[in-house]
Amino acid sequence: MLSAQTTDKKVNQVTPALFSEGPTPAAMAALSVERILTLIKEVGLAPTKAKNVKRTAELLVERHGGLVPRTLDELEALPGVGHKTAQVVMAQAFEIPAFPVDTHIHRLAERWGLSSGKNVETTEKDLKALFPEDTWIRRHLQIIYFGREHCPAQRHDPTVCPICSWAAPPRQDSESTASKSAKASKSAKASKGAKELASKGTKASKDSKDSKVSKGAKASKAVSASKTPKGAAAKAKATKGRAS
Ligand code: SF4
After folding, report:
1. Which residue has the higher pLDDT, 156 or 63?
2. Quick one: which atom of ligand 1 is closest to the CA of 171?
3. Does the Cβ of 158 fall within 6 Å of ligand 1?
4. CATH code, domain with 22
5. Is 195 part of any domain?
6. Are 65 and 55 contacting, i.e. CB atoms less than 8 angstroms apart?
7. List of residues 6+ apart from 224 with CB closer than 8 A
8. Hey, whose CA ends up nearest to atom 6 of ligand 1?
């Protein structure tokens, strides 16, 4: 509930004081939104989260006798509790089989060819079908820890990672192809730019040829001048002036 757009480290820094003042749903519900906001102000989206924490605490008291419910529907009905959070609570608090899909699991399932990577709902469905239900809780944590430690979101280069590059050729090929096409596109743009420059250069050259003889004489004089250090400086200055 507090972790969106915030690091785990930051959440762990604010929760001791928050839970010290609101150790039970009833105690948390008795705190004002402003007080909760003060306690959690360092986490992202703090104003919204403060309102959600208070309202959820109130609903736990009103609907569930001050206890955290155990079903997906009841959990998801609480403000600030999404599908992933509800499944984390089920798995970690009550050990009810669930497969919460976070960003690491979603990324790795696609890289490993276990799911299409279309969306987190599809990933969850595919992983639940793939792994036996009694392994879901353990497997979900294993994949998260592996992803954080060994399988970075950015700069994924299977060619230098020895861990499983041998096991996922289709994904590597597609990433490699994507990388190649990005490079090819960049190169094509550079080539086009070079051609345009060359074309402009040719035109400039033609214009120069067509110019009056007096201009040619002046240019010739400038070239001669540029052969001396003083002349070169003057030419550089003139060039800079034209460019600007
Ligand atoms: S090759 Fe390495 S970085 Fe790539 S998916 Fe496998 S573990 Fe992750």
Report:
1. 63
2. 5
3. yes
4. 1.10.340.30
5. no
6. no
7. 231
8. 164
Runs of H (alpha helix) within 158-244:
169-210, 213-226, 229-243
Under a CB-based contact definition with an 8 Å cutoff, are residues 60 and 23 in contact? no
Q: 103-135 pLDDT, tens per residue?
A: 999 999 998 889 988 899 999 999 999 999 999
- Domain of 172, CATH number, reads 1.10.1670.10
Catalytic positions, written as ranges: 84, 102
* Distance of CA 117 from the midpoint of ligand 1 (Å): 15
- Cα 127 from Cα 136, distance rounded (Å): 9
Domain count of the chain?
2
CA distances from 17 to 45, 67, 108 (A): 18, 21, 35
- Confirm if 80 and 90 have CB atoms less than 8 A apart: no
Residue with the nearest Cα to atom 1 of ligand 1?
165
Measured CA to CA, the distance from residue 111 to residue 90 in angstroms comes to 27
The model scores a pTM over 0.85: no
CA distance 35 to 17: 11
Please state, in angstroms and rounded to a whole number, the distance separating the CA atoms of residues 198 and 192.
Answer: 10
DSSP assignments along 99-124, one per residue: ----HHHHHHHHHTTSS--S-HHHHH
Mean pLDDT of 148-154: 87
- In terms of residue numbers, what domain contains 52? 8-85
Q: Kindly state if the Cβ of 151 falls inside 6 Å of ligand 1.
A: yes
